Model the fold of this input.
Amino acid sequence: MKTQSDIPRNTSTTQRTPRKHWLPSRILPLFLILLLAGSIARAESLGLQIGNWPVTTDNYQNIGDLAPVKSGTVTLDPDSKVLTLENALISIDASSNAHDLEFLTEYTLVLKGNNSLKIYNLAEPAAIYAKKNLTIEGSGSLECNAKILAAQNLTIKSCRLSSFTFYPNIDCRGDLTVDGAYLVLEWNGNNPPVRWKRLSVNGKLSYKCTVVKPEGGHISGGDVWTKDNNLEKEYIELAPRFCVNGFYFERIGTEEKARLIPPSKTEPYWPASYETPTGEIPATVNIGGVQCQVVEIAAHALKKCSGLESVSIPSTVKTIGEGAFSGCQDLTTVQLQEGLETIGIAAFINCTKLTAITLPTSLKTLDQVAFTNTGIKTVEIPGDLNCRNAFKECKSLETVTILPGPKESIKTIEGDAFVNCTALKTVTLPDYTTTLGTGAFQGCTALENINLPPSLETIGIKAFNGCTQLQKLLIPKSITTIGQQAFNDCTALTFIEVEQEDPSAITLGPDIFKGMNKSQCTLRVPIGKAEDYKNAEQWQELNVEALIPVEGITIEPTSATMAKGEKLTLQAIITPSNASNQNITWKKSTTIAISLNPAGIVTALRPGTATITATTEDGGYQATCEITVGGGTDTPVTPPNKGQYRITPNPAHGLCRIEGLASPANVEVYNAIGQKVLELETADAIDLTGLPAGEYLARIKNESLRFIVE
Done:
């Protein structure tokens, strides 16, 4: 009996597999495919791609684990479409043509900390490619080495964004809005740094280099910036501005510092359409939620700001830039505070109503023509400050005092320092000054006298050219050089004294006395050196005379007796009578019997005696005169032992105190003939300035106090 296995197979007969075997082999793979497809369908795209990696509903929670994210934190809120970078580095290698970040739908990119987007294949990819509207904002920064390409609108708010590329740094095919952000855009090549359809900037445009626009172009409306072909590299800043009290500010980089800036980059001065600032410049301003200290007033910030009358600059400001207040013709008052270090070129030029300025001791740099053509009348310059020609052509300037400074102070008055200061009458220089530069006082037509410092070595070319009122001059022994035409056209100069004994020790430039009335000018030289100067070139053109020394002094009378209230004028007689130096000083012995003024006039005050001494400046010779008042002896005022109050000092002059007053009281002062000369209410002091010397009576409450005014 044949079994089934023995039956030969018919090759033409199809052998069917039982159904239970066919189902798994056909249906199961299809089921698995459909199941997988369903799973894939549930992993929806979130409209964002990082490098070659799409971000989906499945992987967004682990977005920081994607290969392009090298460090930092990257998070995504899929509902609000907000991508946040915090100290993140996203980098794409050279083998990929992908963008760092590609936004397929509208997104907000939030920056925290310092972030970077790097691409090593720079041929085409962008650091950021946004197909829809994109907003970049936050308190952090973002640095890119490739372009930012926006197919629609791009808004950049509050953050700092920097980019370097051979292509446009920002290529916006829609509206570009910059609001509270700070952009640093740097590029090489011939492409513009920024391209846009329409530009809206809550701020200003400022340039770090030469940037030119196409002919007929302007800042907005579809134009682009092009580079200056003479420069290999350009740099541009696009920064926001903020207005406080009518003043405009921008943040300085990512620092918590700000500068005061012009309201418009397109106008070379304060536009008439802008309101005049009011109030003080604030020490701090809030920029994008950051409190920034105002440390600088930028170049031309308030140039030709009509209507600006007064400005107070806070102590936080270190620098006032070039032309910052130039042409502010209504400006009358400027308050500079300690802490200011630099005043730039022409900072206050043509502020014609500015009549006074106080320079802080913290000032280190006072640049050229800073106060030219202002109305300043008097100025004190710190001794360690180089004033250059900051006050050149200040035609109202009458008095200049350069204060003594520390050991390493400025010793040179630079060229043109006070040129054409036509009202300048008085100049005080420190004793350590060594050099007057070329034209230092040229054209100072009101200058009559100037004391040249004892350490002065050089008088520069045309230093006093055209000083038509200069009358006399003492040239100190320290002088070694006098430059060409130093005293040209000093037509009133009639007396010059030279302390140097050897005329050959002074190097003279050509024509130092050109234009002077040489025949009317006396040149006084040291004793025994007249012939040397008469034979010396240029000096010989003046009337040379030798110094005649003082040999003695007497006083007439040598003694006198005076009655109380009497006046006597003493005569000091110097020998020889033609001695060159006739200066003397008067002094009295310690006494209250008389008063003595600098002209030698004696006033008798009360019985007593006094000795008066006259001393010559040249040689120190002395003579005396004995004065007796009322024939008595010197009896100083003795304060009363009784009574509650006392005037001190007594004799008094200027300000004196009333001892014993515990509260304000009425004080009446009478002279020796009973006339009331002063009445006031005081708790401490009386100002006796202006009262003639003599004896007085003060009444305080129920007491009378006698005192003397010297």
